[in-house]
Design goal:
Length: 328
């Protein structure tokens, strides 16, 4: 008689019930945040050609979409604004009746329980397409921080639950926290884009948000994709300045960074499944090269396995539907 000494790992994979019982990570609808683009003066919707299925919304259709997303159980959105006018001071970013501010009010009127996040940046609002003020061809830090904080305050005053500075200027989290607290908005959270890489994966977003830099690139303020230890320093600074949550962006090529942040800090960790990650899947699925549903759910699971608590993704409506079908 032959004595078997190896482990029978396959026992725990024998059938679907056992596999479900021992599954270590699960994606749920409560993990999802849907990024949305709202355009000032737009009537109806305008499809973003490089991001199939993703739209720019005028406020009328935006309201209808909020109702639809709420019916799918998606708990929150993050808003990006496309203004009708741009200027060097990005004044539309912090205007009381700016497009994001009006969209926050519209979303809350349709569903007061929806978690409304706002992207806080200046790039969509100035002709240079940079995330801060431009002087003599350089993106200046400290004066930019003042306008970024002013923008965050205007979003919070409009009713945003969470403000998410994505500019990567030094010191902006501290200044935002000070401004919010000075205006009795202590309950408004800060989700910091603590670790935002200067990535080629943002290409389709630039079309969506009309934010392509008019000159140069963003490498002087966004992180080098080669660096991981730097991510820990960036995140530590934001935590010390008052960040309530930390974001790693992009997601798919930075799973190791998500894991490092998760292992180092106790704050909730978000990751952004960005535009090119989305568009590549859509293009391959359209060509019949992949199983879109299986690929997307595997990606979502990988984000959770790496340590993300929150996933910002353009796939959110599809994922919500698929999860509902699985649980029906």
């Amino acid at each position: 008689m032959i004595t078997m000494t190896f482990d029978r790992h396959r026992r725990l994979r024998a059938n679907a019930g056992i596999r479900s019982l021992v599954r270590e990570h699960r994606v749920t609808v409560n993990d999802l945040i849907y990024p949305m683009f709202v355009e000032e003066g737009l009537k109806g919707t305008s499809e973003i050609t490089s991001m199939p299925g993703v739209m720019r919304y005028g406020l009328d259709e935006f309201r209808k979409e909020i109702v639809r997303l709420s019916s799918l159980g998606i708990p929150g959105i993050i808003l990006f604004g496309i203004p009708s006018e741009k200027d060097e001071l990005s004044s539309s970013a912090y205007a009381d009746k700016g497009i994001v501010q009006e969209a926050v009010r519209a979303a809350k009127s349709e569903n007061p329980d929806l978690v409304v996040m706002t992207d806080v940046c200046l790039c969509e609002y100035n002709p240079a397409g940079h995330c801060g003020l431009v002087r003599d061809g350089k993106i200046v830090n400290d004066d930019s921080v003042q306008l970024i904080a002013k923008t965050a305050l205007s979003h919070a005053q409009a009713g945003a639950d969470i403000v998410a500075p994505s500019d990567m200027m030094d010191g902006r989290v501290q200044r935002i926290r000070e401004v919010l607290d000075d205006n009795q908005l202590t309950d408004v959270s800060i989700l910091s884009y603590a670790v935002k890489y200067s990535s080629a994966f943002y290409g389709p977003f630039r079309e969506a948000a009309d934010s392509t830099p008019a000159f140069g690139d963003r490498k002087s303020y966004q992180m080098d994709p080669a660096n991981a230890r730097e991510a820990l320093r960036e995140a530590e600074s934001d935590v010390m300045e008052g960040a309530d949550m930390l974001m790693v962006k992009p997601a798919l090529s930075y799973l190791d960074v998500i894991h490092r942040i998760r292992e180092t800090f106790t704050q909730p960790v978000a990751t952004y499944n960005v535009s090119a990650e989305y568009s590549m899947v859509k293009a391959a699925a359209k060509a019949g090269w992949i199983d879109e549903r299986a690929i997307v759910m595997e990606m979502m699971t990988s984000f959770k396995r790496a340590g993300a608590d929150i996933i910002l993704t353009y796939h959110a409506p599809d994922v919500a539907r698929w999860l509902r079908e699985e649980n029906a």
